[in-house]
Amino acid sequence: MDGRSVEGACERVKACKLILVSVMPLFFLSGCLGKAELEQQAYVVALGLDKTEDKLVKVTFQIANPQVGSSSKVAAPNEPPSDIVTFTAPDILSAKELANSVVPRKLNFGHLRTIIIGEELAKAKWIHHILASSIVDPEMRRETNIVVSKEKASEFIKKNKPKMETRPHKYYAFMQQRWRDTGYVPYANLNRYFQRLSGELFLAIYATTEKNENVRKNEDDYKAGQVPQQSGDPVQMIGSAVFKDGRMIGTLTGEETRISLFLRRKALGHTFIESFPDPINDKYRITVRMTKPGHTKVKVNTKKSPPEINVSMPIRIQVFSNPSLTNYSTNIENQKRLKQSIKARMEKQTMKLIKRTQDEFKSEPFLWYLEARRKFWTMPEYENYDWEKKYTDAKVEVNYDVMIESFGETLKPAAIKKQDKD
């Protein structure tokens, strides 16, 4: 065989290899066995869980109507924004399968962002088994928010009809952003729930449609259902449900929830608006904006018995409202009194909450266990130390480093001159 024949054979071999390499991926990437058309999917945007007898669970699916809120709404102007169906089954996945005996489309959890748990079920010991078994489904994301409703979850979902949002998934998405802005409720999802199952307290969002209004001077000292409200959406979300070892054991108010978030070394919310009693004239309250410019400093001394915890928190204050018209902007003594009053009140309320967690909950939601765990070389050493038990007797000192940054745009509040009586 001459050189030209050998060279031609080599070229043909290279061409065959190139074709083979190009064709092989098609056998793995061109399969359509698992394809799913959009028209065949039913997207669940909210999931409700309620307690029943015999360890069964009542699962409520809120399925979005894709035609509402889109350009195709003209074709179906009278259709509801979602369909709500409830099934009783051993767990979430079996209820999902059972739902397809009624729902013509295949249920999909790809857009699920909110799980509502009825308070009765949240306090049951086997609620963790239900949540843990649902993670087997790859569509169940760990970023899904956990909301505990005072009433049954099925009733909560049916009564939740926001006036400004026709699409239910948008309502929960916008509310999640408001939760971060106000700090009235914690940022709670499945991932954080599973992280805190070893005695640490997990805070879930507390909500209800039932009203038990009670007017209070402190605007954040409410739980869901207690906020004085006239008209508007029926749902109130404020405060948190306290979980320990996977089940609910109590509740916190909006104020206690804010303090809990502040006491964590790193917090998602750094700016809150709150009011405090006027130290000069206690008939009025001063509204301020609180900012947290840095991380909370937490020092845990595990060598002493009981352990010592020192917490230092920087707080910056901007005065927004001063109804009493007291001169704080130019009067140094008044400034000192205001600063000391805010500092004393915050430290008092904080110590009150810490004492409650030690006596009632027997654990802490401030993530201080992470600081204590760093004091040990191995996990067995930390587990033998038993931080949960040691915390109940720990000596805690809290210091708020308060600094007033501004008193508004005016140099001095204008007072109303007294008029002569006619």
From TrEMBL:
It is a lipid-anchor. The lineage of its organism: Bacteria, Bacillati, Bacillota, Bacilli, Bacillales. PROSITE patterns: PROKAR_LIPOPROTEIN. It is found in: Membrane. This is Ger(X)C family spore germination protein. GO terms for cellular component: membrane. Keywords: Germination, Lipoprotein, Membrane, Palmitate, Signal. GO terms for biological process: spore germination.
